[in-house]
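## Example pair
The file below holds two records. Each record gives the amino-acid sequence first, followed by its structure token line.
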Amino acid sequence: MSKKQILKWKHIVLILLVLVLSVCGKAWRDFPKHYKSLSYVTIVHVLYYKLCKRHLVWEFTPSNFNWRLLRIIHIFIVTPSLVLLFLSKYPKARWKQLCYLVKWVLSSSIVEYIAHKQKMIQYKHGWNIFWSSVLYAMMYILSSLFTKRPLLTFFLSVCSIVFFIIKFKVPIKSKQLFSRRFDTIVDCFYHSKLEDLL
């Protein structure tokens, strides 16, 4: 089996692992209760790919996997399943909430660190596991806050987006050098080794 095929199977195993945990944890039963939070997380995930289209700070390494399909699976299935699993067992006591949050952030960060070492996730433009941990903490906190305090969640989301744009120098107002007809070619460049070389 080639390295690309092994990487493809690693992605499949990771996706299946999250789905199995979600099913075994019976988190799907709480979907009607948390669907707004899951929609929020999905929208933020899509927004990341839209705003950082030409300046992705982290990205899944596709290798033998259609990169669009891999993104769609993570945006609409994996990440919402992870958040649903988190929210379904979210405790009510403040101290327990803090311990629960720390456990989830550490667990998610460890899994991502292993995935990064296995070349399943690439970091660019100064991103590292520390920033991923911060992002996990924000994702879990804001998803739990969304249904109770949507305006506050929206405000904190906008502040964090602005912070990350400034911190990682994301070019928001860059002029498009190519028309939409060439988007596919440009996307292939940004998802290949050529981007690292140039």
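Second record, same layout:
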Amino acid sequence: MESARQRFAGGMRVGAGLAAAGFVLAITFGATAREQGWSALAAIVASTLIFSGSAQFALLAALAGSGGIGPAIGAALLINGRFLPMGLAVGPSLSGGRFRRALQGQAVVDGSWVAAHLGGGRFDRWRLFGATIVQWPAWVAGTVLGVVGAPSSDLVERLGLDVVFPAFFLAVLLDELRSSHGSLRSARAPLLAAAIGAGVAAALLWWVPAGVALLGATVGALVGLRARVPAARDTTERVRG
């Protein structure tokens, strides 16, 4: 068994790669925010407190479309709503009372959540902490660089920085699919869930904004929940036997 320090260090190693991608993405956020008239302080504070690329870009898109602050905040809250089930899943793996567990839950971000997943609904909290602790400063630093340097949107497109965000989530998805194990049925479930999610998102994009389409894609997760029921029953029967 690895010690807590070793697991924390392992999380930092995983987080370093995620931090590199996040740093580049944060540059585009800072530059785009400045281009849309945000003050440097507003952009940096947003990255410091929100620390969510999807929510921050949703804010940018909503405000750029003259939707007003209300719809902009609503879009960000809808997208960040994914952290509620993610936090509930991690909760049993955290330690301490409610307040302490709530503080530890602030480490739940997409890449760290996947990196800390052990399977069977279990998470390594030290790996989660290690993966997140290197991503937050990289995200803030990238925003600062984007605000100060403010590369033009043409440069962002030429360097391909505008596709870093979807590429990041694709890498997270592929890593989760690669780590799937168990019976043939359980191995197929993540693939089916991903296919359903992609199909739903692609269909919804014809009628709703990208953020809402992304939320709709989460129905693919129902496949995973359905696949866990037979597995839980099998485990119960083996214990009784």
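Notes on the second record: The chain has a mean pLDDT of 75. Residues 4-160 form one domain.
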